[in-house]
Amino acid sequence: xxxxxxxxxxxxxxxxxxxxxxxxxxxxxxxxxxxxxxxxxxxxxxxxxxxxxxxxxxxxxxxxxxxxxxxxxxxxxxxxxxxxxxxxxxxxxxxxxxxxxxxxxxxxxxxxxxxxxxxxxxxxxxxxxxxxxxxxxxxxxxxxxxxxxxxxxxxxxxxxxxxxxxxxxxxxxxxxxxxxxxxxxxxxxxxxxxxxxxxxxxxxxxxxxxxxxxxxxxxxxxxxxxxxxxxxxxxxxxxxxxxxxxxxxxxxxxxxxxxxxxxxxxxxxxxxxxxxxxxxxxxxxxxxxxxxxxxxxxxxxxxxxxxxxxxxxxxxxxxxxxxxxxxxxxxxxxxxxxxxxxxxxxxxxxxxxxxxxxxxxxxxxxxxxxxxxxxxxxxxxxxxxxxxxxxxxxxxxxxxxxxxx
Length: 405
Fold this sequence. Notes:
CATH architecture of the largest domain: Alpha-Beta Barrel
CATH superfamily of the largest domain: Aldolase class I
Mean pLDDT: 89
Number of helices: 11
Helix content: 25-40%
Low-confidence stretches: none
Distance between the termini: 46 Å
CATH topology of the largest domain: TIM Barrel
CATH class of the largest domain: Alpha Beta
Strand content: 15-25%
Shape: globular
Strand order of the largest sheet: 1-2-3-4-5-6-7-11
Structural class: alpha/beta
Number of strands: 20
């Protein structure tokens, strides 16, 4: 690759459109089976064909997750699934299981095979073996520091690509392999059905005092023993590129189109800034500030620079500073045509995130409903709103405002 790839998630068609609008080089998504995020809407075969078509029109690649650990009863359903994905024109599978890897080579030979982080790749010898088995890319275990990634890059074939997660949720498991959900709820995280018990709050009980709990360095909300921070490597693009990484991956197939828009946009600009200066200047502050405008937990850099405290033990909630109020469908004749997402008022100051360029602010001085009647508030979800604006608001722009506490 001439440049490092920006790989964005898509849990549904709206998220895919957001990733395309805001600059992804590639998108990863799942069909209705064999993906690690059953909570997402995901894509039927017909929808997958449409998604691949949209992406390829913009020279964006599509990778289909086939990264669960399937049981015996599921194996017979794999060949028709793999053949259908190849027929849709997908560029690669993301695979965790060696049996699935073999079946993909047999039933979908035209589709490249990437090895999922679920495989737990931590050394160059494993990478070489997987390359010999037909893998064109490895998604490394999240536990590897950059120093070891650079060492691996030097000892594997040049055409074996390296992909790493650079932003989003983390968990207490090793590369996503976790049994807590299975033990506590019967929902198997290794088959895409994690109940996220690592985010729950926990209390300590004394066995002889039934119903009484005792705080252990906790407040009234409980103790969050497993609750991981979110990963954020926005300030470290130069180090990631220097280590020989080919693809920077954003976590979030179960997250909103707004999340996909903001994070894709931020990393798109951070990567582009790197190639302008090759790391001689820090990224503009607005890029980093964008990542404070999405729901997130406290950020850290994971294991990339060695151990960094990874758990948030005093709370389990997200940090939310902004909320989306509308999306711009069209702008013409100094007028923005919006679809409402959350309530907003005449007189509000809104922050606009365009599909390209820096965010900017506008004032809502006047707005109308679809009938042309003046309104002071847009209270209904998906309501159409007409808003005069001398400042151009490009189609696809996201409008948001500071949350009221």
